Amino acid sequence: MKKIQVIGGGLAGPEAALQAAALGCEVTLYEMRPHRSTEAHLTSDFAELVCSNSLKSETENSAPWLLKQEMRRANSFLLAAADASAVPAGHALAVDRTEFSRRVHERIDQNPNITVVREEVTHLDENDAETVIILATGPLTSPALTAELQRLTGSQHLAFYDSIAPIVDASTIDMDKVYFAARWDKGTADYINCPFTKEEYDRFIDALTTAETVPAKEWEQIPTAPDARHCERSAQRGEPALSEVEWEEPLDFAGSVDTSTCAPNNLPVRARTNNEQATTNNQLKYFEGCLPIDELGRRGRDTLRFGPMKPAGLTNPKTGKWPYAAVQLRQENLRADSYNIVGFQNHMKYGDQARVLRLIPGLENAKFLRYGQIHRNTYVNAPVVLTETLQLRNHPNILIAGQLSGVEGYTESIASGLLAGRYAAALAQGRTPTPAPRTTAHGSLTHYITHAEGKRFDPANITFDLLPPLEEELRRKIRDKKERHRIQCERALEALTSWLNSMAVEAKPSYSAPAP
Ligand SMILES: Cc1cc2nc3c(=O)[nH]c(=O)nc-3n(C[C@H](O)[C@H](O)[C@H](O)COP(=O)(O)OP(=O)(O)OC[C@H]3O[C@@H](n4cnc5c(N)ncnc54)[C@H](O)[C@@H]3O)c2cc1C
Questions:
Q1: pTM
Q2: Is the CB–ligand 1 distance for residue 49 below 6 Å?
Q3: 220, 321: one domain
Q4: 213 has which bridge partners?
Q5: Order of strands, edge to edge, in the sheet holding 191-196?
Q6: Which segment of 55-59, 99-103, 282-286, 354-358 scores lowest on mean pLDDT?
Q7: Which of 351, 371, 391 is the last residue in one of the domains?
C-alpha cells in the first residue's frame, strides 16, 4: 500500500488525515507551526479557527445544514469534535475553539496510523509513485510551497487575492432611474445600467476618495515572486484582518461575482488608507486587473470613467445618449433577486461603503446583501487544474483540499478534507476513487470548483445554487421554496448514503475510530 502525506494541520488536513487513517492507511501529517506561523494563526494547535467560531447555520434544510448532515453521515471527525464543543449560538453551530482544537489534537495523537511532523514543507516530489500527497495548506500557504505549487500547476493557475464585489437586493433598485442595455448592443441586454450625470459622478468620486478604508494589514501584501519575503508577524498580531462581522455577512451566493482570478503583474501600487497609522507598511501590492475602486478613484478623477464606470456603448433609451459614467449591475443568480455591482470590489469600511454606493443613481435605497471585500487568499484555478476527485490533472498522486482548492469557509474546508482523505485512501490502496454524487452538497461543491468558468473562477461556499435544481415538472408543481429545498436535501442525503455504502464494500478499514 502507498503511504499518504498530508500537508497542513488546519481544518482540511486533520480531517483528511483522520479519514485516510481510519481506512487503514499510514499517514504522515505535516504542520509548520510553531516553527513558522501564518499571518493569521495564533497557536500551534491543529484545527485552529482563525477568526469567527461559527460553522454556520443548523437550520434544517438550509444548504450549510445539508453539508453538515452529510458530514455527520460520513463520520467527519472534525464535525464530531465541533458538535462536542458546541456553544449556544441560536441556529448556528458555534464552537469553543480551544476545546474544538483540543479534541482534534487528541484524535490525531491517539491514532496509531498517523505520524505528526512539525516542519514546513518546501518541496513536493511529484515523481514519488509510492506516496499520495494531500496539500491542505490553506489561504496562507507558505511562500516556498506556493512557489512549488506554481511550478506544478503553472503560475497563471494560482490566485493570491480574493476580491469580492458588493451584491444588491434586486427589489431595492429604483428601476425608474436605471435601464437594461448591452454595451454596443452586442448580445442580450442583461445588464442593469445606472447612469450618472457629471454632477452625480463628481459627488460620487468626492465621497469615494474620502471614505474610510479598512486598515490594511502588513500580511495582506501579495507575494509577487516565488521567493517573496514571508511577511513577519505584524504588530497587530491577535487582531485578524477580517473581522468576525465580515465572515458573518450573508454569503449565500454561488454565482460569479466579478472577482476574476487576477494574474499578478508585479506592479506595486501605493494604496493610501485613511488609517495610515494602523499599518506599519502601506506599500500594498494589488493586481492591476482587480484594483479596488477606492484605489482607482484616488489615481485620478476620471480613472473610474475609463474603467469599471465606462459609459461607452451604453445608450440610455430615455436620452438616446451615453451617460457621463455608468455603473453596471449583473444578475447574480437564476432567481434574479440579487445583482452584483460589476468591478466594484473595494476596501471601504461597511458603513462608508453603504453611504458611497447609495450615491449611485438607482441605488439610493439599496439593501446590500454583501459588501465588497479584498483579502489575501491563495487558491488554485480548480476548474483547470483539478479532477472531480481533487487530484491535480497533471500529477494525479497530488490532491488539493481545503481553501487552497477553491472552497470557502471552515465547514467547506473540512468537507473537502473529508473527501480528499477518502480519495487518497482509495488511491493508496490501488482503487479508483469514486467522486461524491452530484446531487449531494459535497458533490455539488466539488462539481462547482471543478466545472466553473476557469477564466473567472471564484471560491464558493455551499449554497442551493450549486445543487442541481429539481426537474422542471416538479418545480412547476411545488412553488414553495422551502419545500423544494427539503426535497433537494432528502435526495442529497439518500445519494450520499448509497455512495458511502458502496465505498464501504470496497474499502476494508484496518483501524476503526473510537466514538467521539
Ligand atoms: C484572516 C482570515 C480569517 C478567516 N475567517 C474565517 C471565518 O471567520 N469563517 C470561515 O468560515 N472562514 C474563515 N477564513 C477562511 C479560512 O481560512 C478557512 O475557512 C479555513 O481555515 C481553511 O482551512 P484549510 O485547512 O484549508 O486552511 P488552514 O486552516 O489555514 O490550514 C492550513 C495549515 O497549513 C499550514 N501550512 C501552510 N503552509 C505550510 C507548509 N509549507 N508546510 C506545512 N504546513 C503549512 C498552516 O500553518 C495551517 O495550519 C478566514 C481566513 C483568513 C485568512
A1: 0.72
A2: no
A3: yes
A4: 348
A5: 179-181, 191-196, 325-331, 338-341, 167-169, 368-370
A6: 282-286
A7: 371
**Whole-angstrom distance, CA of residue 392 vs CA of residue 19:** 20
Per-residue pLDDT tens digits for 161-207: 666 788 899 999 999 999 999 889 887 888 899 999 999 999 999 99
From 236, 390, 403, the mutation candidate for ligand 1 (largest count of ligand atoms within 8 A of CB) is 403
Final residue in a domain of this structure, among 371, 395, 424: 371
- Within 13 Å and on the Cβ side, how many CA atoms surround 455? 1
The CB of 50 under 6 Å from ligand 1? The reply is yes
Other C-beta atoms lying within 10 Å of the C-beta of residue 23: 25
How crowded is residue 404: how many other Cβ atoms within 10 Å of its Cβ? 30
How many whole angstroms from 299 Cα to the centroid of ligand 1? Answer: 33
Both 187 and 45 in one domain: the answer is no
**By C-alpha distance, which of 457, 452, 461 is closest to 261?**
457
Look at residue 511 and tell me if it is in a domain.
no
Task: Kindly state whether residue 130 falls inside one of the protein's structural domains.
Answer: yes
Question: Which atom of ligand 1 sits closest to the CA of residue 144?
Answer: 41
pLDDT > 90: percent of the chain: 65
Asked if the structure places residue 513 within a domain, the reply is no
What are the cell numbers at 192? 442593469
Q: Are residues 259 and 315 in the same domain?
A: yes
The pLDDT of residue 216: 58
Cα(461) to centroid of ligand 1, in Å? 15
Q: Where are the alpha helices (DSSP H) in 23-126?
A: 63-73, 77-84, 97-110
Calpha distance 430→441 (Å, rounded): 27
Which range marks the domain in which residue 62 is found? Answer: 3-160+378-506
Give the integer Cα–Cα distance in Å for 446 and 387. Answer: 9
Average pLDDT (429-444) is 97
Q: How does the average pLDDT of the chain come out, rounded? A: 83
The verdict on residue 287 lying in a domain is yes
Nearest atom of ligand 1 to the alpha carbon of 121 = 42
Give the mutation target among 18, 36, 50 for probing the ligand 1 site: most ligand atoms within 8 A of CB.
50
Cα R_g (the chain), whole angstroms = 23
Q: Alpha-carbon distance 101 to 97, whole Å?
A: 6
What is the distance between the alpha carbons of residues 364 and 196, in angstroms, rounded to a whole number? 13
Do residue 317 and residue 224 come from a single domain?
Answer: yes
Q: Grid coordinates standing for 387?
A: 479532477
Q: What is the 3-state secondary structure (H, E, C) of 282-323?
A: CCCCCCHHHCCHHHHHHHCCCCHHHCCCCCCCCCECCCCECC
- CB within 8 Å of 314: residues ≥ 6 apart: 181, 183, 193, 195, 322, 323, 326, 328
Domain with 443 in it: what CATH number?
A: 3.50.50.60
Report the candidate in 90, 3, 100, 89 with the shortest Cα–Cα distance to residue 45: 100
**Cell 482607482 sits at which residue?**
296
Express the helix, strand and coil content of the chain in percent, nearest 5 each: 35, 15, 50
